C-alpha cells in the first residue's frame, strides 16, 4: 500500500520503519531534515510539506506528532491534510492528545467526507521498535477494519475503543491511573524501607498481595529491586517523567471540560511538575521516588 507518515521522532521513526519492512511504500514528512534523511536512506520517499504528502497518492496517512498544537497545524487550515487529502484517504493520528481536540479534528475531517481515527499507543520506544505497540482506536467500525492490517505491522494489541476520541479517552484514563499508582508505590516502598524493611522483600510481599500493580511488579521505582527496571540503571530509558507530566495534564484538562473531579490525578500532576522543574523530566517517571528518599537513595 502507498502510505503517508508525518512525525518521525522517537516513536514515529521506528513505526515508519516497521511499515517499510512490511513492504509498504512510504511518503514521509517531518520538520527535521535529519529525521527525513534517515528514513530516505531506508527507502522512504521524502515530501516537502503535508500538502505534498496528501498529493502523493497515499491511500492512508498516519501522523505521530508531539501534541495537539502540532496535530491541528498539520490537519487543519488551507494547506492541512484535511483540505488537501484526496477523497477516500483514511487519516490516522497516533499522537497522544486530549480527547476533545481529537474529536474536533475528526469532525473537521468528517465535514470533508474523510475519516480520521484517533489511535494513540502504549508500549514506548521499545514497543515501537519491536512492533509490539498497543493501539487504542477511536472511530467507526469500518475505519477500524480498514486500519487494522496497517496497525498490525506496528503493534500487537489493536483495541477498538468506540466512537471518535475514545482511543484518547482510554489512553488518558490509563495514564492517569499509572501516574497515581507510581506515586503510591513510591510512597509505600519509601515508607517500608525507612521503617527498616529490605526493599526486595517488601516488593516481593506487595507483588503477591493486594498492593500489586504494574508500577510495583514491572517498573518498581526502588533501585535494584528489579534488575531490568529503569530504577536499576539510574532511571535512564523507560517512560520520561516529562511525558507522564504531559499525560496527567491531558487528564486534568479533559476532566475540567466535563467537571469531573480527578483529585489524586491533580496531586500526581503537581508532583511531576515539581519534579520536572527540579530537572528530573528526562528520567524515567519511576524516579519520582527520589522525592521520598534521602540524597544517598536510602
Ligand atoms: P518526538 O518529539 O520524538 O517526535 C515528534 C516528531 O514530530 C519530531 O520528529 C518533530 O520534528 C516532528 N514534528 C513536530 N511538529 C511537526 C510538524 N508541524 N510537522 C511535521 N513534523 C513535526 O515525540 P515522540 O516521543 O515520538 O512522541 C510522539 C507522540 O507519541 C507524543 O504525542 C507522545 O506523547 C506519544 N507517545 C510517546 C511515547 C514515548 O515513549 N516516547 C509513548 C507513547 C506515546
Automatic annotation (TrEMBL):
Record's keyword annotation contains Oxidoreductase: yes
Transmembrane residue ranges: none
E.C. code: 1.1.1.31
Pfam families, per the entry: NAD_binding_11, NAD_binding_2
Keywords for the protein's UniProt record, in alphabetical order: Branched-chain amino acid catabolism, NAD, Oxidoreductase
Reactions catalysed: 3-hydroxy-2-methylpropanoate + NAD(+) = 2-methyl-3-oxopropanoate + NADH + H(+)
Stretches assigned to the 6-phosphogluconate dehydrogenase NADP-binding domain: 3-162
SUPFAM superfamilies hit by this protein: 6-phosphogluconate dehydrogenase C-terminal domain-like, NAD(P)-binding Rossmann-fold domains
One MF annotation (Gene Ontology) recorded for this entry: 3-hydroxyisobutyrate dehydrogenase activity
Domain 3-hydroxyisobutyrate dehydrogenase-like NAD-binding: 165-290
Gene name per UniProt: mmsB
Annotated metabolic or biological route of this protein: Amino-acid degradation; L-valine degradation
Family designation: Belongs to the HIBADH-related family.
UniProt-recorded name of the protein: 3-hydroxyisobutyrate dehydrogenase
Amino acid at each position: 500500500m502507498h502510505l503517508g507518515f508525518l512525525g518521525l521522532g522517537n516513536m514515529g521513526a521506528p513505526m515508519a520503519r516497521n511499515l517499510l519492512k512490511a513492504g509498504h511504500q512510504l511518503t514521509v514528512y517531518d520538520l527535521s531534515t535529519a529525521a527525513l534523511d534517515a528514513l530516505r536512506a531506508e527507502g522512504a520517499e521524502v515530501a516537502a510539506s503535508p500538502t505534498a504528502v496528501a498529493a502523493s497518492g497515499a491511500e492512508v496517512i498516519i501522523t505521530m506528532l508531539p501534541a495537539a498544537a502540532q496535530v491541528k497545524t498539520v490537519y487543519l487550515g488551507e494547506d492541512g491534510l484535511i483540505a488537501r487529502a484526496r477523497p477516500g484517504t483514511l487519516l490516522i493520528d497516533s499522537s497522544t492528545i486530549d480527547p476533545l481536540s481529537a474529536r474536533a479534528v475528526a469532525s473537521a475531517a468528517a465535514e470533508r467526507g474523510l475519516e480520521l481515527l484517533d489511535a494513540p499507543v502504549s508500549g514506548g520506544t521499545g514497543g515501537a521498535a519491536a512492533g509490539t505497540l498497543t493501539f487504542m482506536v477511536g472511530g467507526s467500525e469500518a475505519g477500524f477494519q480498514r486500519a487494522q492490517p496497517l496497525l498490525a505491522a506496528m503493534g500487537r494489541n489493536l483495541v477498538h475503543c468506540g466512537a471518535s476520541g475514545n482511543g484518547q479517552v482510554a489512553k488518558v484514563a490509563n495514564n492517569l491511573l499509572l501516574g497515581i499508582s507510581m506515586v503510591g508505590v513510591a510512597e509505600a516502598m519509601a515508607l517500608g524501607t525507612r521503617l527498616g524493611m529490605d526493599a526486595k522483600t517488601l516488593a516481593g510481599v506487595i507483588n503477591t498481595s493486594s498492593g500489586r500493580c504494574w508500577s510495583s511488579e514491572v517498573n518498581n521505582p526502588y533501585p535494584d529491586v528489579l534488575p531490568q527496571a529503569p530504577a536499576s540503571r539510574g532511571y535512564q530509558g523507560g517512560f520520561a517523567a516529562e511525558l507522564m507530566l504531559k499525560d496527567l495534564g491531558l487528564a486534568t484538562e479533559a476532566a475540567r471540560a466535563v467537571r469531573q473531579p480527578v483529585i489524586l490525578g491533580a496531586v500526581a500532576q503537581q508532583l511531576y511538575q515539581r519534579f520536572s522543574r527540579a530537572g528530573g523530566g528526562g528520567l524515567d517517571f519511576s524516579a519520582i521516588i527520589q522525592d521520598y528518599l534521602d540524597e544517598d537513595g536510602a
